[in-house]
Amino acid sequence: MRFDRMLPAIEIANAALAATGSATPAVELGAMPEWNLSDLYTAPDAPEIKRDLDIGANEAARMKAAYQGKLAAMASDGGSLAVVMTDYEKLSDLLGKLGSYAGLYYAQNQADPARAKFYGDISEALTKTWTDLIFLELELNQIDAAILNTALAHPDLKRFKPWFDDLLKEKPHQLDEKLETLFTEKSQTSRASWTRLFNETMSSLKFDVEGESEPLSLEPTLNLLSHTDGAKRKAAANALSKVFRANLPLFTLLTNTLAKDKEISDRWRGFKDVADSRHLANRVEAPVVDALVSSVRAAYPRLSHRYYAMKAKWMGKDRLSYWDRNAPLPDKPERVIAWPEAEQIVLNAYSGFAPEMAAIAKQFFDKNWIDAPVKPGKAPGAFSASTVPSVHPYVMMNYLGKPRDVMTLAHELGHGVHQMLARDQGPLLAPTPLTLAETASVFGEMLTFKALLAETKSPKEKKAMIASKVEDMINTVVRQIAFYTFERRVHEQRRTGELTADQLNAIWLDVQSESLGPAIDLSEGYEVYWAYIPHFIHSPFYVYAYAFGDCLVNSLYGLYAEAHPEFVTKYFDLLKAGGSKHHSELLAPFGLDARDPEFWNKGLKVLEGMIDELEAMDRAA
């Protein structure tokens, strides 16, 4: 069942996965925006929250009394069924607004017990309300196909046809109403609770980094892994390893429990492969993902292996220690990019592509739809929460003033623009499958990178910029496919019994060795780094969406650079479609087909070409 409307649609950027930047005093960064959540609700104790919870519960009960057992008969009149769908859509927006506020309020400080309680209470109330509506999607899928097709020709109902098409794909995996109700209610004490435990644990961890005056939280500690001082990087890596290892029993239990929870759900719903449920949610076929994964893994030697060997040479080493993987180049000019400058960099890049895109993005800055500063207890990484069509998205950052933070800002604003453009599709069709959700974000990054590169005159700075972009793309493509491979092995082995911490460590080292190559020394301490990756907990198998989006965008950007006819118009049409069209329909106007392995190879050749350019620079130096 698709109860994604209960809680905010939150996308966690690669910033949470690839340590970026180094801790920078806030005074150097300028004034940064913090969320104004009043467009959702003014405060957790605002009377409107109780009012809307009551309205939602009463409306769900009314719909159940009015429609349960009657939908098949109502389908003979498309107009009557359109009334049902309009009611459902309106309620989805209301409940989604409540869930969005609770999730964002909690994300601002996950270490605050009051916020955690509020989030838990709202989640529980929404779950209870949604259980009254479990019957609806089940009954809709039982309507005779011929009758439903006739009903969908009604002018008030036909706009919902893509939603019905997607719903029908879930029919083989739906259970009866009692079981669906049980699964939904038990989610609060199973997956949701374990996920919350992970979030609150990560937010509360403190890392004693040698040389720092006080313990650091996760985000600034990760950011030290790209500090200019190698001793700082090593100290941060050791502090991370020490704390992760101390908490390894908890992380191992979390991983085993959630993998088993997923196996139970998959078994009852008839999913055969461990990733089938994710593929269905992403509206992408398994052979398409398999083609992507095979293409990327085959390209490891030409991409990450080759690049890291080159970087080791630049740093005067035979092999790079794992904490040097994201180190800045030895001669890379280092500067702090203050927030106002970051804003202008991204908006100028967006405006150069399409003024409309920049105008939409500017609202996020002007109206405090961005929460930028690093704060105690704040959720790590970055994301864009689409919330609901009746409001607007919110972007979270942990901005530290490094060039990669600017890229992350461009990434998240790409999501925000996408979510704004798709709002007209309504609550049921605006949400975009994860594979396509990365399109605008990665495209926004590419626009920003190209704009910055065009303004760079110094060969040394240009080399550093290209190398930084290569590393970001490796983190987006190679690393994410390695993460996907890790997840597959963990979930497959979990089906035969619990995994020990040593087994999880061994799987992690094996897939990381394959993907990063012989130039990276995965020495003692790195084996526990799987423990902090949030995607493994929040959204199993999410990670391949990054590689999907990056390769897709490489192909799209190539067409844009070649002045493909009416590219901007076609691109905006793609974003405006939200989740109303399959990826094949959205890519067809560009002449692209994700089912073709050559599509992925074409995208990977963009990254390979950048590495070729770096090698050419070395030869010319």
TL;DR?
The protein is mainly alpha-helical and 621 residues long.
Describe this structure in words.
The longest helix has 30 residues, at 78-107. Among the domains are: 40-190, Oligopeptidase f, N-terminal domain (Butyryl-CoA Dehydrogenase, subunit A, domain 3); 263-333 and 458-621, Oligoendopeptidase f, C-terminal domain (Neurolysin, domain 3), CATH 1.10.1370. The protein is globular. It has 621 residues and is mainly alpha-helical. The chain has helices spanning 47-67, 71-74, 78-107, 113-131, 134-140, 145-151, 161-169, 177-186, 191-204, 218-223, 230-246, 248-269, 276-282, 286-299, 304-314, 339-353, 355-366, 403-421, 434-454, 459-476, 478-494, 501-516, 534-538, 544-561, 567-576, 583-587, 597-620; strands spanning 10-12, 320-321, 370-371, 383-385, 394-396, 520-521. The chain has a four-stranded mixed beta sheet, covered by helices on one side. A two-stranded parallel ribbon has the order 2-6.
Number of strands: 6
Query: Runs with pLDDT <50, length 5+?
Result: 1-24
The structure class reads mainly alpha
Strand content: under 5%
Could you give the distance between the termini? 59 Å
Features:
621 residues, mainly alpha, Butyryl-CoA Dehydrogenase, subunit A, domain 3, Neurolysin, domain 3, four-stranded mixed sheet, 27 helices, 6 strands, globular, disordered N terminus
Structural topology:
Layout: E1 10-12, H1 47-67, H2 71-74, H3 78-107, H4 113-131, H5 134-140, H6 145-151, H7 161-169, H8 177-186, H9 191-204, H10 218-223, H11 230-246, H12 248-269, H13 276-282, H14 286-299, H15 304-314, E2 320-321, H16 339-353, H17 355-366, E3 370-371, E4 383-385, E5 394-396, H18 403-421, H19 434-454, H20 459-476, H21 478-494, H22 501-516, E6 520-521, H23 534-538, H24 544-561, H25 567-576, H26 583-587, H27 597-620
Helix pairs in contact: 1-3, 1-4, 3-4, 4-8, 9-12, 14-27, 16-17, 16-18, 16-19, 17-18, 18-19, 19-24, 20-21, 20-27, 21-22, 21-24, 24-27
